[in-house]
Amino acid sequence: MVRVRFAPSPTGYLHVGGARTALFNWLFARKMGGKFVLRIEDTDLERSSQEMSFEILQALRWLRLEWDEGPIYQSRRLVIYRRMAERLVREGKAYYCYCTKEEIEERRRASGKKVWKYDRRCLHLSQEEKERFEREGRPRAVRFLVPPGVTEYQDLILGRVSVKNDEIEDFVLLKSDGYPTYHLSVVVDDHLMKITHVIRGADHIANTPKQILLYRAFGWEPPLFAHLPLILGKDRKKLSKRHGETSVLAFRERGIVSLAMVNFLAQLSWSPGEDKDFYTMEELAERFSLEKVRKSNPIFDLDKLAWLNSKVISALSAGDIWPELLPFLEREGIKEESEAKKDWVFRVIELIKERSRDLLEMARKIKRYIRNDFDYSEDALRKHWKEGAKDGLRRLRQVYAGLDSLDAASAEASLRALAEEMGVKAARLIHPLRVALLGERVSPPIFHVVEVLGKEEVLLRIDRALRELPDV
Questions:
Q1: What Cα–Cα distance (Å) separates residue 212 from each residue in 87, 198, 265, 366?
Q2: Which of 167, 179, 183, 422 shows the smallest number of beta carbons within 10 Å?
Q3: 241 flagged as catalytic
């Protein structure tokens, strides 16, 4: 059975690169009928935090990347790593290193070399020297003894990769504080968790030969590796905070819907191969293939994300939008009112979704439907509140008040009849009506707005405009 894992380090928020890695692992597991394991690599004591772990879980849940096993925390598995490191020492495949950071740095500087490898000083210590260091209580790390030869593997995306072992220094497996390094913990865990495919970013390419050497030293079969190309900013440099916010949850806060984010991430280095704006999670999983992942580095285009978000919002039903919209309604102070008249708000959502770029904008629009104490847009007044606007609106109010019901059809027919009677174009009444009802320059079809608001509310809003807006 295919088993993949996503193994973030809780030293920061989940950024878009990590989210894409998680997504590709999830899609591959679902496509192959396998398992998606979540492992939290929290052995970096100084930088890891429980808060960041919680944020990562929240981001994965928002993206709908539910895991089959986990979360498994490496900090609770320290005994296993220490036992494995000691095993390699006993077998002569690793050795104790008593060098301090200061001593190593001094020898590095003295060498005068730009690229300096650990000089294996502690490999050649005499028994007397080792015993003396032990009596002194000198801290010791465990270093892997890199064997001679060449390390090769077949990357599922990049193809054949080959590295000469003499280019790899004897890397640390267990630090002097007893905590494992990334290389040791990831190899031990991937083996014990029966991971079959390691799908991760290309920034890990340099780590892979070291880890393959470790697999061989333990006598284990390595998993298959697939390294995803790095995501770049528009300046074609590695994506970082200088390109703007890169935290996944920050995009949620900006009103991006999860399905839009997933589709955007999925198409960074891969394409479903059909001419559609977006796909469901099930459709993405059905079409996913590692063989179709491109080697070239994708560009993170915020404009494309914004466009895709508007497309997804316009296609989703009000019921699908609702759960993700609630935090934004709360931010606007209308959550309770919206929940109290949920069915009516759903009608508003269906009316405005094609004109909403994000959920924040949608919530602000909904607020204008729920409450009639909004500010009139200066742009709307400048464009549509012109000579004769107030007189026309006053006459329209009389017409609407005399109707038994005010649906879209009757609202339109009676307005057009009044315009003909007044000898003006219908737009001379429609635009002031839009200002009165929503205070904006543009809106959904105004007669549908009238129907959604209802006769009583329409008359109240017209009365307010006639009372508060200036004569022109």
A1: 17, 12, 29, 56
A2: 167
A3: yes
